[in-house]
Design a protein that fits this description.
Family: Belongs to the MipA/OmpV family.
Radius of gyration: 18 Å
Strand content: over 45%
Subcellular location: Cell outer membrane
Largest sheet: 12 strands, antiparallel, barrel
CATH superfamily: monomeric porin ompg
Shape: globular
Protein name: MltA-interacting protein
Keywords: Cell outer membrane, Membrane, Signal
CATH topology: Porin
Structural class: mainly beta
Main location: membrane
CATH architecture: Beta Barrel
Length: 249
C-alpha cells in the first residue's frame, strides 16, 4: 500500500476506518477489502483483503490494525496508549517508472503513541499522536479529526474532516530522494520537511440484522506541497476506500 490511514486508514489513516466498526459489544469478526490510490509515479491503485478483528474491553481494545490500553474511559472521553500498524510503503518493483525502479524500498512500520476521543451531541473529536517504533522512518504523525454521525434507522452516515501531520523524518523517508539514489536513478535529490495533509471522509454503516453489519468508508486526501514536490510523486491527492462485512457476537 503506497500511502496509508485504515488511516485512515485510518488514519492515516491512521485508525480511521477500523475505529468505526468498534462497538460496545465485546467481539466482532469479519472480512474487508481496502483500495488505495498510489501517489507515486508509475504506481497503480491496489486492492488489499484484510480481516476485521475488533474487541472492546473495559481496559483494552483491538480494532484490526490498532490496539490500545485505556488510561481513561467514560461515555464522553477515552484516552489510551495505542499501537497501530502503518501500511505506508514504497516498493520499486511496483512502479512502471524506470527511474523510480532504481530507488530503495520504504518499509511498512509499527507506530505507538496516544489516542484521545471526545463524544458529544455536537459530534466526535479524535486525535492520535504516534511515532515510529521500528526505526524505519524515525518520524511521527499527528492526526486530528472532527466527525458527526447521522442515524437513519438501520443506516448511519458519518462524514468527517481532518488533517494528518507528518514530521520531516516521516515525509523524507517515504518521499525524499537521497544523493546516492539521485545518482543511480537520474532523479533530482530531494529532502522533505514536515507537512499537513487535509482530508475529507465519509462512512456508511448498515445493520443487516442484530449481528451482521456492512460498512463502506472513503477518504479523499489533499497532498501537501512537501509531498507533491517530491520527484517520486505525480499526484496532488489520494483516494482510499474501505468496505467490509462483519459479525458481532
Amino acid at each position: 500500500m503506497n500511502y496509508f490511514k485504515v488511516s485512515a486508514l485510518a488514519v492515516l489513516l491512521p485508525c480511521s476506518f477500523a475505529a468505526f466498526t468498534a462497538t460496545a459489544n465485546p467481539l466482532t469478526l469479519g472480512a474487508s477489502v481496502i483500495y488505495s490510490q498510489s501517489p507515486y509515479k508509475g504506481g497503480e491503485g491496489r486492492y488489499y483483503p484484510f480481516p476485521i478483528v475488533n474487541y472492546e474491553g473495559d481496559s483494552f481494545y483491538v480494532r484490526s490494525l490498532t490496539a490500545g490500553y485505556y488510561l481513561w474511559k467514560d461515555q464522553q472521553d477515552q484516552l489510551s496508549l495505542t499501537i497501530l500498524g502503518s501500511p505506508q510503503n514504497f516498493d520499486p518493483d511496483d512502479t512502471k517508472d524506470k527511474r523510480l525502479k532504481a530507488l530503495d524500498k520504504r518499509h511498512m512500520t509499527m507506530m505507538g503513541g496516544v489516542t484521545y476521543r471526545h463524544t458529544a451531541d455536537w459530534g466526535i473529536v479524535r486525535t492520535v499522536l504516534a511515532g515510529d517504533l521500528l526505526g524505519n522512518s524515525d518520524g511521527f504523525i499527528w492526526d486530528a479529526t472532527y466527525l458527526y454521525r447521522f442515524q437513519f434507522g438501520d443506516l448511519s452516515l458519518t462524514p468527517g474532516i481532518g488533517a494528518l501531520y507528518s514530521s520531516d523524518n516521516q515525509n523524507d523517508y517515504y518521499y525524499g530522494v537521497s544523493k546516492s539514489e539521485s545518482r543511480r536513478s537520474g532523479l533530482s535529490s530531494y529532502q522533505a520537511d514536515g507537512s499537513w495533509n487535509p482530508y475529507l471522509e465519509l462512512t456508511a454503516a448498515y445493520s443487516i440484522n442484530q449481528s451482521w453489519n456492512a460498512t463502506l468508508s472513503g477518504r479523499y486526501t489533499r497532498l501537501s506541497s512537501e509531498v507533491k514536490d517530491s520527484p517520486m510523486v505525480d499526484n496532488n491527492s489520494q483516494v482510499t476506500i474501505w468496505t467490509g462485512v462483519s459479525y458481532t457476537f
